[in-house]
Each structure stands twice: as C-alpha cells, then as structure tokens.
Design goal:
Blueprint lengths: L1 H28 L4 H18 L5 H26 L5 H22 L4 H9 L7 H20 L1 H6 L3 H38 L6 H26 L3 H27 L10
Length: 269
C-alpha cells in the first residue's frame, strides 16, 4: 500500500506547499475563486489540445498555460470596471462558467469519452509519473522563490502590472496542478486548509504553516483511506480536508464559548 501512495503523496505535498502559500495572497486580495476559474481555463486548454490530437506533454502544458494567460488578461483589463462596485468575485464566477460550459461542450460535441471529463475534475493522482513530479517540483521551486522575492509587492500594491505578474505565476502553477490532480483538488488545496487556519491566526506566516500542516496531514490520511475503501484518492483527500475544516469550526466554537465572560447574578440581600 505504501508503495502505491508514495508518488501521489509526494505530488500532494508539493501542491499543498505552493497552493497554500498562494492561497494566503488570494484570500487577502479578495479573489477567492480565481484558482477555480484559472484551473478550469487550464483544463479547457488541455481539452482543446487533446481534441487536436496533441500528445506532447510540453505542448499541452503551453496550450493550457496560454488559456490561463488569456483569462488573466481578461480579469486584469476588467478589474477597474467591476472592482468599484464589488463585483470582482462575480466576474471570476462568470469566467469559470464560460470555461466549464465550453469544456463540456467540447467533450460532448467531439465525441470525447467520459475519461476526459473525469480527468478534468479529478486528474490522475494515483498514476502520477516520476517525470511529472520532477518537472512540478522544479517549476514550483522557481515560482516559490519568485513569490518570496516579490512578496511585498503582491501584498501592498494593486497595480495592473503586479496583478498580471501574479496571475501569470498563479496560472503556471494551476496549469501544472490541474493536469495532475484535476480542478476540484487544486481548488481544495488552495482554500480549505486556510479556511481552518484563518480562524485561529491573522498572521501570514502562521496561516501558511497551519495550512501546510492541515494539507499534508489530510493528503496522507486521504490517500490511505482511498486505498482501504477503493475510492479515487482525489475525492478522499477533499473529504478529509472538509472534515478537518468542520472539526476546526467546532473547535473554534468551543473555544469561543469557553472564553466568553460569565455574568454573575446579583441578588438583593
């Protein structure tokens, strides 16, 4: 069993490290669903490449990445118009709908089988190849170093220049991630660990560390559970992440009740 989940766990680990770090930026920018939208555009690019009978992994990556760049440019150009009336998330949602509807249409109209739809949603985590991991680790290491060097610009500025740089880096990560684990787990790694972390700390560093711990632990448990109950690992990892989030909500509630001051009733003598 351990040999079966070793490579999938290494894949989950690197995805957690990069997506949780990106996730803190995303939450602070108020663009929570940007990962889901860009992941869906990357998946659309992969589907278009498959429809064109392209099998080269590097060319498929470039096609998927180009689709995320197009989506990023659209979001950047539209931001000055919709940001004033707080419709940023709505526009991101529309971008996701466009990509999802188009991808489903491509699958239906071109005779692609259900395998492509399943891979778009859940990837092929159980069948990760060593070469995929090596490329992913190299790519994410380079992007992670860039994130660290540009950290203050992404946190303190909102100019179009830095927005497009952020989206391009994010798009490169998402394009690689969605090919391995699918749209749903990519979004789960970005958001769910941080939903637990932000309830207990407001600092960037602590949110990242707690998110990493939750994401890696959930990945390990989810992979073991998937082997035991024979369910695709991506879905098991998502369910364990959601379970941890639910337990975090309960823990936060219990702590808040414990910290509430007690009011003593004063009785007249």
């Amino acid at each position: 069993m351990i040999s079966l989940i070793f490579l999938p766990f290494l894949a989950c680990m690197v995805l957690v490290l990069i997506h949780v770090y990106f996730g803190v930026f995303v939450l602070r920018r108020g663009v929570l669903f940007i990962d889901l939208a860009l992941a869906q555009w990357a998946a659309l690019g992969y589907l278009v490449g498959r429809w064109a009978d392209i099998d080269n992994h590097y060319i498929l990556f470039l096609i998927g990445f180009s689709f995320t760049i197009v989506a990023s440019l659209i979001l950047t150009v539209l931001k000055p118009f919709y940001n004033k009336i707080n419709l940023q998330e709505a526009v991101i949602g529309v971008m996701y709908i466009i990509a999802t509807a188009t991808a489903t249409g491509v699958i239906s109209s071109t005779g692609m089988d259900g395998h492509h739809l399943r891979e778009m949603l859940a990837g092929h985590l159980l069948f990760i190849q060593p070469t995929e991991l090596i490329i992913a680790y190299g790519l994410y290491l380079g992007i992670g170093l860039l994130l660290i060097s540009l950290h203050r610009y992404f946190l303190t500025t909102s100019s179009q220049k830095w927005n497009i740089v952020f989206y391009i880096l994010f798009g490169a990560v998402v394009t690689s991630s969605v090919k391995m684990v699918g749209v749903l787990l990519v979004f789960s790694f970005l958001v769910i660990p941080l939903l637990s972390a932000v309830m207990f700390t407001n600092t960037f560093k602590h949110q990242v560390l707690i998110g990493w711990g939750i994401g890696i632990s959930a990945s390990l448990v989810g992979l073991f559970v998937s082997m035991i109950i024979d369910v695709p690992p991506s879905y098991c990892v998502m369910l364990i992440l959601s379970l941890i989030w639910g337990l975090s909500v309960i823990l936060k509630y219990l702590l808040s009740q414990k910290e509430r001051p007690t009011i003593k009733r004063i009785t007249n003598p």
